[in-house]
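Ligand-bound model needed. UFG.
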Amino acid sequence: MKVLVTGGAGYIGSHMIAELMENGHEPIAFDNLSTGNRKAVLCDGFYPGDIRNPVDLDRVFAENKIDAVIHFAASSLVGESMENPLKYYNNNVHGTASLLEAMGRHGVRNIVFSSTAAVYGEADEVPISEKTPVKPKSPYGETKLAIEKMIAWASGAMGINYISLRYFNACGAHKSGDIGEWRENETHLIPIILQNLLGLRKNFRVFGNDYDTPDGTCIRDYIHVMDLARAHTAAMMYLFEGGKSDIFNLGIGKGFSVLQIIEAAEKATGRKVNFTYEGRRAGDPAVLVASNEKARKILSWESVEDDPVEIIKDAWNFYTRHPGGY
Ligand code: UFG
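Prediction:
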């Protein structure tokens, strides 16, 4: 399958490309490199370009007979979206409209979309299923939800088949250690802990220890990035086999607190994590854990790695091999 991976130089996109190559598919990366890294792209096909630019899109679609699009290109930081919501509407919503239009112009009918658990906001139930009411608490979550709906409408009108995947907390790295999670301005828990352990970052702060959870810190569902990538391949193949357009949660179905992740990082690295407690970070829900039953049943997908110690070992392997980034 020839697969266009938008955002292919980003954290999850680059792992998607590795997974597609390992399974005999032919990925083509498309990325404007605003946050992605050219060195993270392991495939030969790379098109620098912006999804908001029809000329860039027409070029890649005209030069390649694309079977499916896996769409990651987006702005994806909750905090930044609160400060600069229009950037998120422009890049994410307008960008995806432009991508769908290009798919229409070039007769490409299949898309797997990278959505997020942020569409649920502060969910009323745990675990969170696809039937749990959506009520995003940030422009980031709002724009991802708007895109899900836009794709569904476009699907009806244009005959596009789609799967939207709502990820919980992506983490870990490819076993090779060649690619991993690296951003200029990191905000995510596990890379921050590892950067702190490598002396690249001075303070590591735990945001809030007064949540209504057993140890007072927030609980999340940490899913290995290669398990996420495998789910996209499963979703794409499901569409090719005639499966119907749908939405799925992707998580391991188990929650770990920030303190449990710190403990796992200490086991994985053999080092002691030093931290201080801070107040809560605005917009953080106390508990986010997925029900992944639907993906298991319909996509026949299972997470392979459920142990945060092993996940962090993979991330640590990447970090120790690339301490200064790519
Ligand atoms: N945390 C800290 N200290 C830090 C960074 C994070 O204590 O320096 C805590 C957070 O407060 C949170 C947990 O670690 O409780 C995880 O935080 P991350 O920033 O790693 O991830 P989030 O759960 O905030 O965000 C993730 C995805 C988003 C997605 C969101 C859904 O990264 O893309 O889940 O709510 F939108």
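The chain has a mean pLDDT of 97.
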